[in-house]
Write a structure and sequence with these properties.
about 525 residues, mainly beta, four-stranded antiparallel sheet, 1 helix, signal, WG repeat-containing protein
Amino acid sequence: MTKTLLTFSLIITSLLSQAQSWEVYNSKLELQSRVIYDHIELLSETVRIGHMDSSLFLLSGDLKPSVKIEADEVYQYLAPWIIVKGQDGLGAYHEYGQKNLDNLYDEIQTYFNFLLARKGKEYFLFERGSGKTTSLGELEEAKITHTGMVITKRNGAYYLPLSKFPTKPYEMLSENESDFLLAKETTGLGLINREGDYILRPVLDRLEHNKGNFFYGFDESQYLLIEGTEKNGDIRYNSFHEITREGDLMLEYIHGKLRRVMDEDGILLDTVGLDKVIPVGDESYNVYLRDQKVGLLGQKGWLIRPIAEVDKIFPGSENLFPAQKEGKMGGLNSTGHWQIQPEFDEIQLLSEGRASYANAGNFGILDYSGDVITAPNWSSIKPFKNGVAIAEKNGTKVLIDRSGQELTTKPFDNMMRLENDLFIVEVNGSTGMIDRDGNEILNVEFDAIQSISQNMILLTKENQVGMSNDKGEIVLPIAYDEIILDVENNQILLKSEFVPVVIATPENSKKKKNKGA
């Protein structure tokens, strides 16, 4: 009997010694339950996958198996679809648990309510509404656009198999960032909506996507600015004068002379004496006039009207705009007056009323009125937040306040800002955490530190993980293989090696007790 029990215990220990135990805690760090899986994946807030003994399961909120997934691995999660991989290829499950495609395909593209799968040269379409998979035949290529249209190509022609005209061929169908397809036929270029209807007939000689649902076109002798709507392609501006387009910049020339700066649907600036326009930022332009004046133009008009004795003006904030004059940098206000005199090698706007200036490659701090706060003591300064910024000095990082006082007493190799004015710091490959005053919250002794929520910090040391709060107090010991935050269910999952407990029960002795014992 003893030998049998011992053998059975060894078998159980052998089977479970490699398994993983997961402890489930609530947000108050109270143990709720334990489950056994080799691995748990949180694909989204509501989709969880459990791995156990080479099997995959879709898990319920309480981590119980709800659906067995017939596959070797989860290949990709594209909500609401779980793409899986088996020995014969890719398959697909809906996140609700339905199996929709067997593991047979070389490629699967997804959209909200259907799947486009390829096996060799043959394509298949699965529609969730009907639950049916139909063959589209052998194709040169096929794709799903970001608006849910399917474009196929066969024998050099393009088709829209889910539209009202599934057999109609096109010379070209091109997706872009708008809600519409660019289409080409023998008659010209046009625009097609999601239903496959033309909102702009294919008659244009040239048609390009601009921004959003706006397009730039040319037809015979006129230039067009077009807005796509669900029913029509509205011509917002047309001109027989040349409109050029270079990236996001559109300019109109009248009789060969630059006259207008255009936006997506019309005239942004119309003035005589334009010489050139140069982009200097996101939707900001330097406008140079023939009288040697320069202005800064934004999407709603002048940010700084043209002024003399300035070479270049950059986008700004808080009524201050960095500007260059004769190779030196300063700062202009919106009326075009020098608020910071142009006497520095470089000016960078930071935040909270502070700018940095550079001379001889090092940076100091200015206020927005142009007063120098500090000498150029740092090689770089990042923007201030809540009165604190990260600066670099001699290849190391320090914290400084708005007056330029260094808040850290020792330098760090690297530094990264977290929420709540906390900073992850690194020295010689080890990481720790400090607060905004430079006080050490966590010793610099960990392999990695990661913020997983506003007040939960994940700690890694010697391949084990634990957790602290934002005060540096260890709330979960560094003794686990993995920690997962399950936000949807307000719980924390902790993985450790499963160690079975075997309780040995002594056999009843058949010997008689000695008297008096």
